[in-house]
Predict the structure.
Amino acid sequence: MPSELVENYFRTEKLPQIWCPGCGHGTITRSIVSAIDKSGLDKNKVCIVSGIGCSSRAPGYLDFNTLHTTHGRALAFATGIKMAKPDINVIVIMGDGDSTAIGGNHLIHACRRNIGITAIVYNNSIYGMTGGQYSPTTPKYDKGTTAPYGNIDKAFDICNLAASAGATYVGRATAYHANLLTSLVQNALNNDGFSLIEAISICPTYYGRKNKRGTAVNMMEWQKNNAVNISAAAKLSPEALEGKLLIGELKNSPEPEYTNEYQKIIDRLKKERQ
Amino acid sequence: MKSRVRLMQGNEACVEGAIAAGMRFYAGYPITPSTEIAELSAEKLPLVGGRFMQMEDEIGGMAAIIGASLAGAKSMTATSGPGFSLKQENIGYATIAEVPCVIVNVQRGGPSTGMPTSPAQGEIMQARWGTHGDHPVIALTPSSVRETFDLTIKAFNMAEKYRTPVILLMDEVIGHMREKVQLPDPSELEIVERKRPDCSSEEYLPYKADYDLVPPMADFGTGYRYHVTGLVHDETGFPSNNAEVADKLIRRLSNKIEMHRDEIESWEEENTEDAEIIILSYGCVARASKSAMNILRSKGIKVGTFRPISIWPFPERRLRELSLRVKTIVVPEMNLGQLVLEVERICGCNTIIEKLNKVSCEIIYPEEIVRKIEEVL
């Protein structure tokens, strides 16, 4: 018997999902659905948009208005939906390559506009769907099928990128820290403007195997042992924080939301003509 | 009644037509020579409760209009050559996901950055085959300011009726030229809305086509929770790897346009009854062809004109009929010969086909057409 959460929000006839055994994406998807549930949103008024990649298969399993778009463009499609119907809660699910390589331009501009969209990046540090090529978040010197001698690109910090581009709510959690992830997504859904949540996933099939990270359990343990909540990090020395993953609420500074600002123009023009 | 006579540019007529057709969302990126369409949409849309967005790039503009259309807003984007290239992937998305939208391409000199402020007709074949994979297309080409207004409305109507992207293929001359136009009273316009489901959300199959091969379309946010994807999908909208499903979908998408050819095809012909020579042209070149015809007629040469308005699908049957009784068809184009390939395919066995091509990014003058015809006589 599926849990109540699965029963209420998943298209159960589409399960099981396509992700590999041990993949973190299922846990992350569950956390998002749990946040939607806790926020009490009307399913008919939720739209989940994705790009292309492993993560982007998530919307197909979810019982909302769902849109699986082209590679990197999910935020641009989502922007159109939000502009046409601002009362829809638009949630965008993207992968790391999807959102920061091919879709990097859309990401920074959606942040800059502070349009009312909740973006969730499933970051597994690799292109999984195409078989393990290095992505903009693959740590330097790690391996991928297109970096057989080690990746010499410097990795993006997606949260820093989003925060500096203007996202008004930013947070990070891991597949292991599923409850934290749920509460961050819940806060993001509460933010009128643009929110970005980075969900650190695990890819035992490609990233793990290429980089000798052991089993899915070993990779989850790494997340457990190496993530430090921002509230605890303040008390730690820089040395103690070396190599650690900062999780928790990283930015929360609400600003006027884009479609509301546009509505003000429409209202003002209407008033002037009366 | 308020006079609707105005001096207007083609790009302006496009925006007037779009708003009259019900456009309520525009997303695009500045590019010469189509920028006025963005500027005027930015000015006029909020006045009718619509929304305009200048996106971060051309690709984003195309993506955003698809999103807005799925949420129920009639949407349009406009661009020129380089931007048209960038939009192609998502035009294919709109085709397979069957999302109504209008894409305007005001053609300029190419390839690449080419001659941004000068006219050309280099995207005839790109309009047909620009996005990858087998797909149908509707592309309309105006040759006057007033016709730009009418065809923009028609483009929206066809997009809605057949759930497909429609391309309005203008050129720099038509986009920037100013003419006196009398716009029709809004009450005289026929405006088409997409077919929406009349069944319950439980019964709704988002990609189950009706007898006209067009499935009814529910707006996002109205209680019909369904899935949209650019992957091959079955009637439920969910992806499928089944060969039969793929074959059925790709054929239906094409047949949906093919079966409505009679409604979609349009053209204009003049003096074809007794013509021995037909000048076949479109867009700004058709204006020169008309003058050339008049000059040649005054010299006693029996010349007629044929102007496809729907470039795609091409008015095939009528041209074949005409080709059986004329000696020559002359095809002047501002490219190295694109639509002439279609003309040769349709009637190359029936008559002689002569090309007149110009790629200097200048218009073709009537005298050049006259000279060509006098040469081939």
